[in-house]
Design brief:
single chain, alpha/beta, TIM Barrel, two-stranded antiparallel sheet, 8 strands, Glyco_hydro_1, GH, beta-glucosidase activity
Amino acid sequence: MKVEGAANQYCRGPSIWDRFAHEFPERIADGSNGDVALDHYHRLEEDIVRMKYMNLDAYRFSISWTRIIPCEQNRPSICVPFFFFFWVELEYESFVGLEPYVTIWHWDTPQALEAEYGGFLSRNILKDFEDYCDFLFKEYGHRIKRWITLNEPMVHIQRGYDEGLFAPGRCSVWVNRACVAGDSATEPYIVAHNLLLAHAAAYRLYETKYKVGVSQSNKYLPYDSNSTADIDAVQRSLDFNYGWFLDPITFGRYPRNMVNLLGSRLPTFTQQESDMLKNTYDFIGLNYYTTYYSKNNTNVDPLHLRFGSDSHAITTRTYSEFVTASNRWVPSGSFCILTGSDCFWSTPKTHMEITIFT
């Protein structure tokens, strides 16, 4: 949606971001929407030529669920013009030597499914997501060797279900008065749970042939001081960011810090679900933006619980001993990742392929 444009052409169905941007333009910084965006749909050949001119050897892009399966009426129906658009895009990339890294879900849940049963708040979405993935694997699998099931799920959950700043704009009203529905204490964990199960189902569907991973946004979190409390806060921050998704797809369970702090608010996996989740990735994609520093938070209000404070840690980009860029983002965390430090996240796998997206 952020790139392609052509939002109202052919049989494309609306996503939750279409509804959010059009119904609540005041909640978008500049009031814009994705109707035109970068107009990649009409500039496909030009864009691919520019990538080749830049000597790129790979290109990461997303396939939009509602461009392939509109979901509005007859769910199995396929939007043929956009099916061919992505097919042509892959042909162009192959011709100029670009390796595709394809994201299956980049926050653009079909609005029809959101209206029907609440989108990823409901387990009903698991079958619909698996059907969508099955179609992609069958039709495009011969061209795509690396699939990314979920892009930055934690960001979608935090902004969309804890703060109400992103689509679908849900949160507790005491967090954001613009939210007309939601629960910042419980919904983030329900959505994450269903996203994890959707990822696992897609991986098991595809694991015999190619490589599947997830993409996380990077928040390397060194502590502010040498205090034990702040060191512990770093681990909690990592658990509530990376561990929230990487622990289940590695170990089949949530991090212990989350289990201990959330209690009954954290959904549980059955033994079958746990077994299905274990080792369901072949690589981890990282979108690196900035470093955050973490310190202990002793002022959590038990009467106003929410994801944003559940880790009992405060994160900030402000720390005078370290260099920041002009936009106040901190670049030092990228070195931590590239050198393999455990300040990111540790894995028991003998080999983990990490792909940095910049």
